[in-house]
Predict the structure.
Amino acid sequence: MTALPRAEQLGLIGCTVCGLVSRAPDFDDAGCSRCGSALRRRKTASLSRTWALLIAAFIAYVPANVLPIMRTASLGDIDDNTILSGVLELWNKDSQALAVIVFSASIVVPMLKFFALLVLLICVHRRSHWAQPQRAKLYRLIELIGHWSMLDVFVVALLTALVRFNLLSSVEPLPGVIFFGLTVVLTMFASLSFDPRLTWDDEEPHD
Amino acid sequence: MALSSRLVICDDCDTVYRMPVLGRGEVARCARCGAVLARYHRFGLDALAALVLAALLLFIQGNIWPVVTLALNGQQNSTTLWGMILIMWQDHSQVVSVITAVTLFFFPLFNMLTLGWLLFFGRQGRQAPGFRTLMLAMHYLGPWTMSEVFVLGALVAMVKAKAYFEVLPDAGIYAYAALTLFITLFAGIDLRRLWDIVPGRRT
């Protein structure tokens, strides 16, 4: 691939923060001369950090779905809602469009993120050449949509505040919503610690 | 150590290119992985500064006007954003209250003020005081700006709250909806061009 030289082949290094191109330093801990950020060929311990965060996120994802995220009480009628039952409720109350949005943000996006990061990680470990451009696109996609999963956390927060005004009923957040928020934050950290450049590295994975 | 600024390295795959000269509406993409390398700057620094100012005005409106009116038992209750945050705090939902305040108030405010500050000096071809620290802060905070998600969350919450009483959107929420569009626009701005400002030369 002489037509598309990579930074390492030319002895160059790009700053991921400010974009400045420098000559690759021959010592560790060098800083970018413009913004002072550490110049690293690849993100530090990218694979093990991403794995750790991904597994932690998955562990938190179980209680996030099993435990109720909020309790609604109206005239002594207590009802605990999970993420899925919240979506079903919206669907049954003729808010199908919103139900689809919440379903996408709370269920499809986290699942897609788990799946995508898993594929990216495994392919890097296998030094696979399979579907490299598609894997690059997949990474950019999860970077773009990842934070939309926070939707349900915000819904519970706002609903709690709104329903306070009605003395006869109340909505309170339950632990499930904390686990769900944790899942989203952990998957965001996981995708931030994954280094997409590893997808194109043929040699030993940098771990 | 720094080389000619005419080189650009793809963030996603480490391929080196010579920075192309882009015409109106053109986007340079990496030939290896398809990532965007550079875009034609549709907005000059002056135009960006104007956008930040407009966003700040919307932010003020969104915060002083009530966001929703609740109608129950023939009574009408309006609440502002901070009214909501305080109610949640007093009602033992401190975690949720802090998340709300940070996402919808402190993050966007910090973002706009910083961007405005950097652009104010950038327009004069100067680096603002604290330039490096602020640019780094913007870089690392970027992925955590979730105001647009929050506004959609507000819409869903209002629909769900209809099970209990009538909820009417107020002016504040429309201001926030408009602000969301601005914030999405800011997210697409390549802040890196500010790094390229050489003191004393207008870009």
In short: Chain B has a mean pLDDT of 83. Helices of chain B lie at 45-64, 81-90, 94-122, 131-141, 147-161, 171-187, 192-195. Strands of chain B lie at 7-9, 16-18, 27-29, 36-39, 68-72, 75-79, 166-169. Chain B touches chain A through 60 residues (CB under 8 Å).
